[in-house]
Specification:
- The chain is mostly helical.
- The chain has helices spanning about 1-10, 20-25.
Length: about 35
Amino acid sequence: MGAQILQEMGFNNVTYMEGGMVAWNEAGFPTKE
């Protein structure tokens, strides 16, 4: 899982979201490229 890898790399503000970016976009939340 990506969130676990980021935490192992030292990131501490990591959140796992069911459905990932697809669910985020479908919910209409903002994204930035």
